[in-house]
Amino acid sequence: MKTRIMFLSFCLVMTTIAWAADIKGQYQEDFISRRDMALVWTADVNGKWTAQVPGRDGQPQETTFTFKVEGDKLTGTVSGRQGDTPIADGKITGDEISFTVTRERQGATIKQLYKGKVSGDEIKFIRSVEGGQGDRPAAEFTAKRAK
Predict the structure, then answer these.
(1) 60-70 and 73-80 beta bridge pairing
(2) Cβ distance 49 to 65 under 8 Å?
(3) Which of 31, 41, 77, 130 has its CA 20 to 30 A from that of 102?
(4) Positive or negative CA dihedral for 29, 32, 33, 39?
(5) Distances from the Cα of 72 to the Cαs of 26, 46, 89, 123, in angstroms?
(6) Burial of residue 68 (number of CB atoms within 10 Å: 0-12, 13-18, 19+)
(7) Contact, 45 vs 92, CB < 8 A?
(8) pLDDT recorded at residue 114
């Protein structure tokens, strides 16, 4: 019985060593890129999120984000005073999400670029705006999962 336990322990140690290093002595981490690891795990952002998003005049506006994740693709809508607007170019990698929202206002196309980092039931966003009445500085805000 002792011999069998020692043999199994030896096999376990050798398997662990072989898994951790390849022939050149590199660690297993070299074989798995961060992108591949992110594909294995992505934050769960499915559902509704609400935030007080800074408006053009700096006043906060209640905004609802509705997300659906399929693999690394993010779809959904952004809802506010102007109604529902679909998101485009949505991606999720690990705990980072990004998407764009394009709106027409007074004959001008306004493109909003959102980048966020998910932490539990919060997403810390940075939103930049292109077009319209000129580019505006980026705005930071936090969205919270709707209960």
Answers:
(1) antiparallel
(2) yes
(3) 41
(4) negative
(5) 29, 12, 11, 17
(6) middle
(7) yes
(8) 97
CA distance 101 to 80: 12
* Tokens at 12, concatenated: 């376990």
Across 120-145, average pLDDT: 87
Q: In this predicted structure, what is the pLDDT of residue 65? A: 97
Stated as kind and residue range, the H or E segment containing 79 is: strand 73-80
The pTM assigned to this predicted structure is 0.70
Confidence at residue 91, expressed as pLDDT on a 0 to 100 scale: 97
Q: How far apart are CA 45 and CA 132, in angstroms?
A: 30
CB atoms under 10 Å from CB of 138, counted, come to 13
Tokens 């919060």 correspond to 122
Sign of CA dihedral 9, 12, 18, 21: negative
